[in-house]
Amino acid sequence: MATSTGTWSYRDRFHEDFGRTYFRRYGDELVSSIGIGTYLGEPTDVVDEGYYEAIRAALEGGINVVDTAINYRCQRSERVVGRALADADVGRDEVVVATKGGFIPFDEDRPEDPSQYVLDEYVGTDIVPRDSLVGGHHSLHPDFLDDQLDRSLSNLDVETIDLYYVHNPETQLSERSRGAVYDQLEAAFERLEERAAAGDIAHYGVASWECFRVQADHDRYLSLPEVISRARSAAATVGNAATHLRAIQLPFNVVMADAFTVEAHDSQDGSQSALWFAHEAGLDVFTSASIAQGDLARELPAAVAARLEGETAAQRAINFARSAPGVTSSLVGASSAGHVEENLAAGEYDPLGAEAFDGVFE
């Protein structure tokens, strides 16, 4: 797993190639403020090879954050991450590997009848209790997460996953009350606290799409203070001295800035944005959709682009995302070594300072 010694050594090899604060604190470790994501693409051998080359280029070029999920590309993304990590000229202790569990994954390709696949492979085998399923494809049941974590360890071919996210818990809100989802999260956290104590994961987090960046009256809202409280309760129940909840992941980019602008999380100082609350609570923030799945690589709003450094629209979009206060690393999908080269070049520029970042919203 990633260690302080390993990640600081990684930083020492690369930091002169990049601008100010390119490497940032992650607990007692250091991580690149640009990470590589593995979400997009068809589940094919051709895409696998593109990702393999991209991940190796990233790891050998100054990116030591790799993000994936078991359901991405029918488990192929996890498997190619494992292969690239093993072959790249980096130490395992230099790289933070994150993955996620919550959505039922297919295996290698999409089955002709997905519903029957879920019934045969997961419900019929008692891996997923039928009453825990929402939409036929999402569960937070501890036994399911146990199974998924074991599969992820095998897919990634690692002994310990550095950061294991509960994936999009707001999916459950389409069929359950908010209180019931908090209860589910606490039960899931208890299992993850046990797995952390056993050394299978170093930390866990919550990866979201909507729940932390919408108003409190939104039907997909979840409260960060309540999530943290449930994690602390889970740690106490298991007997851990402190919670292993470490991070959240949420979308943040030029056209999706809600995590900075929407103040929906209660604190002693009043309502705060997700970014500000997470920072005050000591949680790391990893942003997804940093270039809006490619849209911002083509064009940025002119008024914003004028304030940002970078040779291309993609580089300026990346630098906007990693300039936000409280952001540890901004994830960017890259399925070719060429994309990685462009993304890495964004890190040669300094991020915006706090005053300049705030000025974007004036």
TrEMBL record:
Gene3D superfamilies: NADP-dependent oxidoreductase domain. It comes from the Archaea. Coiled coil: none annotated. InterPro entries: AKR2_Oxidoreductase (IPR053135), NAD(P)_OxRdtase_dom_sf (IPR036812), NADP_OxRdtase_dom (IPR023210). Pfam families: Aldo_ket_red. SUPFAM superfamilies: NAD(P)-linked oxidoreductase (SSF51430). Residues 34-215 form the NADP-dependent oxidoreductase domain. PANTHER family: D-THREO-ALDOSE 1-DEHYDROGENASE, NADP-DEPENDENT OXIDOREDUCTASE DOMAIN-CONTAINING PROTEIN. This is Aryl-alcohol dehydrogenase related enzyme. It comes from Natranaeroarchaeum sulfidigenes. The lineage of its organism: Archaea, Methanobacteriati, Methanobacteriota, Stenosarchaea group, Halobacteria.
